[in-house]
Amino acid sequence: MQLPVQITFRNLTHSEAIAAKIRERAEKLEKFFDHITSCRVVVEAQHKHHEHGNHFHVRVEVTVPDGEVVASQEPD
Predict the structure, then answer these.
(1) How far apart are CA 62 and CA 35, in angstroms?
(2) How far apart are alpha carbons 4 and 26 in whole angstroms?
């Protein structure tokens, strides 16, 4: 990817392992469109659930010359 991926962690400690996986997957986006101008990813921890593990909200914003594509995943 031409520009670095901007990764933000909210309500959790920065994890280099997660950031590396995000960068790895972001690189694959260029297979679909090679004129991506920016990519921002926000990983946000929701409430801590002791019985069901932690839940995370992930939002990916990809900017291209003609607009922006946003994908979001809410926890189950």
Answers:
(1) 10
(2) 10
pTM: 0.81
Answer for the pair 1, 36: CB distance below 8 angstroms, yes or no.
yes
Q: pLDDT band for position 4 (50/70/90)?
A: confident
Q: Where are the beta strands (DSSP E) in 1-76?
A: 6-10, 38-49, 53-64, 67-73
How many Cβ atoms sit within 10 Å of the Cβ of residue 32? 8
Q: Is 5 exposed, middle or buried (0-12, 13-18, 19+ CB in 10 A)?
A: buried
Q: Which of left, alpha, beta for 25 (phi over 0: left; psi -120 to 50: alpha)? A: alpha
